[in-house]
Design a protein that fits this description.
The chain has 380 residues and is an alpha+beta fold. The protein is built from eleven helices and twelve strands. This is Kinase-like domain-containing protein.
Length: 380
């Protein structure tokens, strides 16, 4: 086995040990992941970012002085992934996401993220890389950077209502990956957990950043619109494995490094350098296969394209330019009836299907009457 692969494994193990482990501490105590942020509470405030009360050095659990159970209390919600935490930007009250990056492990992440957030690229509609608002280094921690980004939400939550909504999602994802590739950057981990959406329009009253099904104060369910009513923009996040290539390097190759999707055919039992652009095509195709083709009904028209994207031989996969062109043909062939039809979850029971179909038809009639497009028009 090559030394490069050994180093990749060492980095993954070190990250898990530092950031992925849960201490199983009681709710009134911070676990080891949370302590890191608590210890930097005041310094983050000096940079203009206020953590939730749970992470204040003066925090006293609210349920200790009330009749609420800790599970129902806002400050009972702990972060789920050590390097990422929510905060309020004190300059305008906007809730943002803070991510800490160790440059030793991911030396290119901040540079690539900032490149796509540059003035030249940030305003381009085809750019679906998460915006970066700010980057700074903490005192005495030169190897650790804090990157500030918007509060996003999983791209598949809330559920898709119509085929047209799913079609618009696919369009944006293909467009976004094509945009990265046109700028000679590969994501190398664009699996489903690294695809998010901007929830600003969908959730006008927002939601709790950890218990995302609840309101900000955790007193009830977070209300939201459908994607047809309030079309979101989709984003790729996490450029920790991403790489940038010179335009003169027509066929770059990379030693395999595992991202979140462990099904990449060319990585199975091989350390041979591979085309990272072709691997990206597999990643995004497999994400759609797992989250839509295998889990939903009504999207069978995507099967041939997705099958070509996840072929075992990376040399046989289409480039993203071809993926976009083929998808445009597929989309143009879908009629209004199909686009407005409901996306059905294969796990629905009969009662759920009846309830959801009834509410779907009520919305559908209203949308048609008001001339709302079957394929949502996202914000630019």
């Amino acid at each position: 086995m090559s030394r490069t692969v050994d180093v990749n494994a060492e980095v993954s193990q070190r990250m898990f040990a530092m950031w992925g482990k849960t201490d199983r501490t009681p709710p009134e105590e911070l676990d080891s992941r949370e302590v890191w942020w608590r210890d930097r509470y005041k310094e983050l405030c000096s940079h203009g970012y206020l953590l939730r009360p749970r992470y204040s050095p003066q925090w006293v659990p609210s349920w200790k002085t009330s009749k609420k159970d800790w599970k129902d209390s806002e400050d009972g919600k702990r972060i789920t992934f050590g390097p990422i935490i929510d905060a309020t930007r004190t300059s305008d009250g906007k809730v943002v996401t803070l991510k800490r990056i160790k440059r030793e492990d991911h030396p290119y992440e901040a540079d690539i993220a900032l490149y796509f957030s540059s003035q030249t690229l940030a305003s381009q509609p085809a750019n679906h890389c998460v915006p970066v608002y700010d980057v700074f280094v903490l005192d005495g921690e030169d190897d650790t950077m804090i990157m500030v980004m918007p509060l996003l939400r999983s791209y598949s939550d809330p559920s898709f209502d119509t085929v047209g909504e799913a079609v618009e999602c696919f369009r944006q994802l293909f467009e976004g990956l094509q945009f990265m590739h046109q700028h000679r950057i590969t994501h190398r981990d664009c699996m489903n957990e690294n695809i998010m959406l901007d929830p600003t329009l969908l959730y006008p009253a927002s939601f709790h950043p950890i218990a995302t099904n609840l309101t900000v104060d955790c007193t009830g369910d977070a209300k939201h619109f459908t994607r047809t009513q309030r079309p979101p923009k989709y984003y790729f996040i996490d450029f920790g494995l991403s790489r940038r290539y010179d335009h003169s390097d027509a066929n770059p190759k990379e030693i395999p490094i595992w991202g979140g999707d462990k099904e990449v055919p060319e990585f199975q039992n091989s350390n041979e350098p591979r085309d990272p652009f072709a691997t990206d095509v597999f990643y995004i195709g497999n994400a759609i296969r797992k989250d839509f083709i295998l889990e939903k009904r009504g999207l069978e028209f995507m099967k041939p394209l997705i099958a070509s994207m996840i072929q075992a031989d990376p040399d046989q996969r289409p480039k993203m330019d071809e993926v976009v062109a083929r998808f445009d043909e597929i989309r143009s062939g879908l009629n209004q009836r199909k686009l407005r039809s409901r996306v059905v979850d294969i796990h629905e029971d009969l009662f759920e299907r009846v309830v959801r179909t009834t509410s779907h038809w009520k919305r559908r009639i209203g949308f048609v009457a008001r001339g709302i497009p079957a394929i949502p028009n996202p914000p630019s």
